[in-house]
Amino acid sequence: MRYREMKAVLAAIERADGCYLLHCALAEQPAKQTPQWQPSGKVFLVGTMIDGMLENAREQYATLREVRPKPHVLDDDTVGRLVEVYAAQRDDLWLWDEQLRRWAGESLGTVRRREVERLQGRMAALHTVVDDILALADELGRGTIEKVMAKSDIEVGMEMLMRLAREGERDR
Predict the structure, then answer these.
(1) On the CB side of 134, how many CA atoms lie within 13 Å of its CA?
(2) How confident is the model at residue 16 (pLDDT cuts 50, 70, 90)?
(3) pTM of the model
(4) 27: part of which helix (H) or strand (E)?
(5) How far apart are CA 84 and CA 141, in angstroms?
(6) How far apart are the first and last CA of the chain?
(7) Comparing C-alpha atoms, which of 115, 106, 108, 109 is closest to residue 45?
(8) CB 130 within 8 A of CB 90
(9) Can you name the CATH fold of 2-171?
(10) Residue 106 and residue 115: Cα distance in Å, rounded?
């Protein structure tokens, strides 16, 4: 069970990282250089990329929520890679926002204008999901297998009793 869960998290991280690298390649710019703003004729290509990022982020968040009750199935390296990938993506989201803002300021046809507006909504959702992933990764990072193994038996037992007490109070 642990192997399958960990494998699912790793696969989602790699999809997100691959999606990020693909976006850099398609934009024909290495990460961290001057942006190459695209003409409005590429709005649908950019839309495909934004939709892909949002879909991958939602899948990653769903996978992480599944392991939330048992963070010990993850290790520090996996959580560290997750944070690295999604922090980099979060730091680059402004590029996509700015590209859409620039297009929104242009004289566009109805179809392209609607697509830009749709993508701005998708970007707002992406910001939220990426922030949620990073917050959940921070939470999960406090309970990785390395963190559990570093605790004494008494600490682990006390934490379990406290968790059971909290769950009992919620059930009332």
Answers:
(1) 15
(2) low
(3) 0.74
(4) none
(5) 13
(6) 31
(7) 115
(8) yes
(9) Methane Monooxygenase Hydroxylase; Chain G, domain 1 (1.20.58)
(10) 13
